[in-house]
Amino acid sequence: MKETARLIVDGKTYELPIVEGTEGERAIDISNLCRDTGFITLDPGFGNTGSCISSITYMDGVNGILRYRGIPIEQLAEHSSFIETAYLLINGDLPTAGQLSQFSARLNDHSLVHEDMRTFFEHFPHGSHPMGILASMVNALRAFYPEIPQRSEEEEIDITFARLLSKLRTLAAMSYKISTGMKVVYPSHRLSYCANFLNMMFDSPVRPYHIDDDIVHALNVFWILHADHEQNCSTSAVRLVGSARVNLYAAISAGISALWGPLHGGANQAVVEMLQEIHDSGGEVEPFIKRAKDKNDPFRLMGFGHSVYKNYDPRARIMKEMCEKVLKKLRQSDPLLEVAKKLEETALKDSYFMDNHFYPNVDFYSGIVLRAIGIPLNMFTVMFAIGRLPGWISQWKESLDDPRGRLHRPRQIYMGSNKRDYIPVSERGQ
Ligand code: CMC
Predict the structure, then answer these.
(1) Interacting residues of 392 by C-beta distance below 8 A, sequence separation 6+
(2) Measured between alpha carbons, how far is 275 from 334 in angstroms, rounded to an integer?
(3) Quick one: pLDDT at residue 68?
(4) Ligand 1: does its nearest atom lie under 6 Å from the Cβ of 381?
(5) Which residues, 6 or more positions from 47, have their beta carbon under 8 angstroms from its beta carbon?
(6) 175 lines ligand 1 (CB under 6 A)
(7) pLDDT in tens, 317-352
(8) Nearest 5°: CA angle at 63, between 61 and 66?
(9) Catalytic: 363?
(10) Does ligand 1 come within 6 angstroms of the Cβ of 301?
(11) What percentage of residues in the chain have a pLDDT greater than 90?
(12) Which atom of ligand 1 has the smallest separation from the CA of 292?
């Protein structure tokens, strides 16, 4: 007999099914609670709510485990490429050599963006944040690439996936070039996905960009580490907006907007700003640790803590190693890496951080890798967005195929005024 949980309210007992995941996590299924009992559940921030059943990403926050489609993140970071990982997330299995080259060819075919999109870029006010621009441009893609009625739904979805994966990278590099007043560099069919991005960002007619395999590898790892993270804020936004059956571009645009926030993807920019502030104020980390612990100070140690990880974020461990490798390869040193290491060491000896399980997360070291590669600070969260795209796409696809899927519509408990009458403005006093 299947295990159930018992809920007793108003003297009546209700049996609630228990759902067990393939890794043994257990949940009480309350899908019919309201229908059967008239009660809803209250869970601000959804920290206790499973919004779906998913087969894409497994994370165990207590033990610091992350796997995409069952494969540990460490193995993917070591052996895979971003494009292969994107294929894995979207299709469920690693591609064969033939499938991978077909997928790459498809991305290459869709890598250019409509020339008219450039006029969009040119009319954003100077200094606009690239995340705002990216969210608008992605939403605008539907207007430039409308649905073609002759295509089957499956074909339309496949083309949209390829367009998004390929064009987001082109749009990001193009926005950087235009914002700096430089000539746009087009994607090349001779280069891989990551090499192409670096070339579009940094090549110029007067200073050709030299593609270094180790830097291309570092970018692959950076994007693999960001590729999915189950039901995080931006992915939940994509699923929620997608549940209204909007087109995929609009759903991804919502994800980009959610990612922009400093508590989510925007943290990678905020971390470097914080490290810079510590460095500029003399490099002492203790005053910042003190501020982070002060309940009356809104300051938080950026790049520390996580809603699910109560252990070292496995992505942060790989990213930290990557910092050292990239700086060594480029024969650079970054004073902010020294500040970061000192901050981590001090925080991890402090009972406030240890008792609350605040460890470095993926954003703590990622900015140092990006700085070394030459990515400007205001593009950091755009880099996160490009990386997270395969996750958003696969989660959107899964939600669409889910037979239990329905319009996302949470409930609330109303605690406002009871019924009262409308008072005409003339009777409301001054
Ligand atoms: N420094 C200082 N205090 C913290 C921190 C931190 N990094 N993180 C949480 N707290 C405190 C917070 O002030 C609050 O204190 P109080 O209960 O006294 O008000 C308490 O811990 C609980 O905070 P919360 O925001 O309710 O808890 P959460 O588990 O939802 O927080 C978090 C998760 C990531 C929003 C938070 O740890 C944080 O703000 N970290 C800094 C921002 C950051 O690095 N974000 C990137 C997350 S990883 C990338 C991603 O997936 O987007």
Answers:
(1) 234, 235, 238, 251, 252, 255
(2) 11
(3) 98
(4) no
(5) 307
(6) no
(7) 999 999 999 999 999 999 999 999 999 999 999 999
(8) 65
(9) yes
(10) yes
(11) 89
(12) 2
